[in-house]
Specification:
By secondary structure, the protein is an alpha+beta fold. It is built from 25 helices and 22 strands. A 5-stranded antiparallel sheet has the order 2-1-5-4-3, sandwiched between helices. It has a 5-stranded antiparallel sheet with strand order 7-6-10-9-8. Helix 2 packs antiparallel against helix 3 and helix 21 runs parallel beside helix 25. The termini are far apart.
Length: 808
Amino acid sequence: MISLNIPGLAQARHDHHSFVEALRLKINGQAEKPVNAAALTQYAHGLGPWLYAHAMVAYAEIDQLRDIEELHAGIHKLAAQINLLISEQKNNEAKAVYEQVVALDKELTRKLDEILQLPALHQEVLNVTPETLKIDRRALFEAIIENAPVAMMVMTGPDHIISIANERMIEMLGKDASILGKPASVAVPEIAVQPYLDILTSVLKTKESYKAKGMPGYLTKDGVTTNHYFDFTYKPLLDANGDAYGIMAISVDVTETVEAELAAKRSAAALWESEVNSQIKTSVLEYCELIIGISHLEPMPEPLYNNQYTLDRLGWKHNKGRTLIDAVYPEDRDFVLKVLPEIYARKGGSYEIRLWNEVTKEPFWVQWNVMVIDDPSTGLPAILATVSPDITERKQQQILMQQQQQSLLDAIEVAQLGTWSMDIATQKATFSQRHLSMFGVTARDMDLETAINHVVESERAQLVNAFFDALKPGSDGKFEAEYTIIHGKTGKAHIIHTKGQTNYDPSGKAVSISGIAQDVTMLRTQQQSLEALVELRTKELDASNKKLAEGNQRLQQANLLLRRSNEDLNRFAYVASHDLQEPLRKIQQFGSRLMAEFETTSPKGQDYLSRMSAAAGRMSSLINDLLTFSRVSTSDSPAGRASLKHIVEQVITDLEVQISQADATFEIGPLPDVPGNTTHLTQLFQNLVSNAIKFRKVDPDGNFIPPTVKIHSQRIAHEELPEAQQSLAADMHYYRIDISDDGIGFDTVYLDRIFQVFQRLHGRSEYTGTGIGLAICERIVVNMGGMITAISSPGNGSTFQIYLPDSQ
């Protein structure tokens, strides 16, 4: 006997608590019999029948019922998981899952207690008993449904749960009694892709009956799908308030009748095909810029028709000997062959696929809209027609957008950013896995309150205020904050920097907010370390500056002493050039007069006078050379460039008499312009050239050999300098000027000595001079930022090498 038995809320709660208790007993091994697997479904047990078959229809306006339904479904999902774990003898894990059931059950009980305060539900509890809800129409349903000569069933709720179905209906659907208590889309999954579900939903919504004659459909039994035709009626079932809570379906399989009628029309098939061909060829299809194709279904011969645009796009001169699959890009053919059966069953479909041009081998994207046309004589699918616009540009943009989105995701991943969002209406927050990892949690359903609780208490209020300020009307919707959280696993503090943007609907109302988050703990630690280091270095710099100031003060004192020393030296130079020179000039003058007046004196007297005059001359030369050395040491070199070519020419002119007497020859190469004091450079080259002429060789007969003097230059980099000259400034180039002679030379063991004041390697009787000339040369070169050295050996001449900086 089949009846429509819907329990009241009190009985439903009792059934639900019995179900939870049965789970507990089963986990503890105290259950007398196992929990029926069928009872684990949310529709068939506990609150299910009352909730889905009655409450969610009768009290659809009560929003809390949706929360109750979500909790109820969650409990039954966990119950199914417990059942599986117990069957695998994983009782400890089953107990852990049961704790989740208990938590959800507490929340469910609280929600049920809340809705009991509502007038509608309170009235039901007071006035309605389980017996009154059994509905007095039981006998009527029994008589109509069980004994009806046609297939009948009753579906309740928005999911169309099959509450009642007679044997004829079960047999017609090709199923068994297990479909009872299940949603229609679950019990008969093939109807999910057919129009029936939409019709059921419409009847439940409009409360208007729906009738159909010979409606095609297909059913699957034992894995075999067959086509059928049905006459059926969907009639809404209304409660006392006039609200639809279910649908009664009455159906007759009229497949044989329809197919018989279709068979009678087969004789008109050839005429129909001819008329279709004629109509197509004379229609606007020929002029459409659409990919159009028409062909038979089975088998798949060459197309009946393709417009010219299609032939051009495919690179076909004609369609003879070709099929639909030939037009499909090779990489997409398996997909097309896979979906064709679905297209036949659904009488059409729309897919994004690639066709290709056989000549250029280039693919292009189309929206492949397919229609299946029935043969009017048989009513069976016969023609496949496709109308496909080119969507290549749109698809390329879509692919580009996907690539950009992937690039953004990759950038977020590389930057190790977490993402979050929140629906403002429900305040339900969603966090990415990386964001959850930052907080040290694994549950993806962590809510906003839980997230805020991870923030250290001292920073919560400021964070919450900043967050909700971004949601206020009139704000720019931007949210940015930096806060400290306690990691859920390690218990360590982490600093999180987050940015968000509020999203608005067209009316300007905030609907959601989303953003990114980054763990900046290491960065902030480095910044703090850097700030501490900067502070330390600042203190060290202050101390250094103090020492430097003290050093500067000492340097100023040293400069003052040096300035006084230079002033003393200048006074000495004045004395040397005037006061000391005057007595020497008197001695020379009186010596010359004495020699003139006493020409007849004794030879010995003449010798004394001659020696006196020579000594006075040497003293005068010595004073002049010391004065020159002093001036080189103390005078500044004016900024400017001096031409060494002109300086050497002037020196040769000034030494013309000495050069002529020595019969010297010169070999002079190109010489550069260098920064320096022309007077000092003239003194430098005059001393070196004079020495090259003076220290010439003597032949066996005691006669001087005419000397040859060579002057050349080259520009070199710092790294090309000899090791002894590497101390010169490294950030510039240098000119090396070589002054070579073929004179007597010297031993290089005396190299350092020859540039010292009053140092001579030969007696005054052999070669004249004061021993200051090379010291003057070295002082001039050093003052210019350069160096001077020499290469020589006895009897093989000398080469003096001058290194002057090129500061241009």
